[in-house]
Each structure stands twice: as C-alpha cells, then as structure tokens.
Specification:
Layout: H1 2-27, E1 47-51, H2 55-67, E2 71-75, H3 78-88, E3 92-98, H4 107-117, E4 123-127, H5 134-137, E5 143-146, H6 151-170
Parallel strand pairs: 1-2, 1-3, 3-4, 4-5
Helix pairs in contact: 2-6, 3-4
C-alpha cells in the first residue's frame, strides 16, 4: 500500500513538474516580473523555487505550497537550484530551501545568490539541524522553519514574507 501511494505521489510530482516547466517557459515571455496579463487575460500564479534533496519531503512541501495557490518549481540539488535561479529569478515570488543539500551549494549559498540577483526575494530556510546557524548565515528578512514541519507552517512562512515584500515595494 505504501509503495503504491509513493508511486502515485511520484507520478503526480512528474505531472506537476511538467506543468511547472511549461509555466516557466511561458512566463519567460511575460516580462521581467511575469505579472502582465497574458493573451488569455489571466495573471499567472506566483512561482516558488523549492529546493529539497529528500524526495518525500519535497513532495510534502510541494503539495503544501500548491494547496496555497503557488506553482512550484522543484530542484533537488544546490547546483540545479542555482541554474534555475539564474534563468528564472525574475519570475519567482520566493524561495523555500533546505540548508544541507549534500555535495555542492548549500541553501545558504542559494539564498545569497538569490539576493544578489533580487534584493527583495523572499527566502524561507527549512532545516532539521541548522536553525541555530540562521542568525549568522541567513540573509536578512528571511525565515526559518524547523523540520519536521506542518505544511501550514511552511505556507505561512513564505506567504508572510511575500506579503511583506509586496507591501515594501508598494510604499
């Protein structure tokens, strides 16, 4: 039963990734912030870059963010995340990143590069063991969510930062 459920989740994730890839390609045509109306007359949903190297944690986080109305662009390594960030930083509404991603760039590195590209980009760190390092390594005006977390915690953290960034840009 668990194997079947996991296979179903992975299949759903592949379909979501295909939709996300199609969205990111089309959103690149929408301009720097991706907020202009398209020919169909709709404003695209906000895109979150989700960086997580553990597949099941990625699925849980992706489901929570999607339930909150976000399109999720998943990355499973720091290198993949940096590549996506370089190409799509203008379309992103925020980033949720694990800190320890194995070999290669860490979540700290991803956030620092993101802020070099866009100083106002909301960042949420998700970690099981590095929260105590956030005051030293975390970028300003970011948040940290301790693993294990409820999906609502992750959704609240990124939504709050996006709202704050929107309010700051409006004033």
């Amino acid at each position: 039963m668990l194997v079947k459920h996991t296979q179903d989740l992975l299949s759903d994730n592949r379909h979501r990734s295909e939709r996300t890839a199609a969205f990111l390609v089309s959103s690149a045509l929408l301009g720097e912030r991706g907020i202009e109306l398209t020919a169909g007359g709709f404003v695209p949903e906000p895109v979150i870059l989700l960086v997580e190297d553990e597949p099941l944690v990625l699925l849980v986080a992706q489901d929570a963010l999607a339930a909150g109305g976000y399109v999720v662009a998943p990355a499973t390594s720091g290198a993949e995340a940096l590549d996506m960030l370089e190409k799509q930083h203008g379309e992103l509404a925020g980033i949720v990143t694990d800190i320890r991603l194995g070999a290669g760039p860490s979540g700290w590195d991803i956030a620092k590069r993101a802020r070099e590209l866009r100083a106002d980009l909301p960042i949420v760190y998700a970690t099981g063991d590095s929260a105590h390092e956030w005051p030293v390594h975390g970028v300003p005006s970011s948040a940290v969510v301790q693993k294990p977390y409820a999906g609502a915690q992750l959704l609240t953290a990124i939504s709050s930062l996006i709202t704050a960034a929107d309010m700051n840009s409006a004033s």
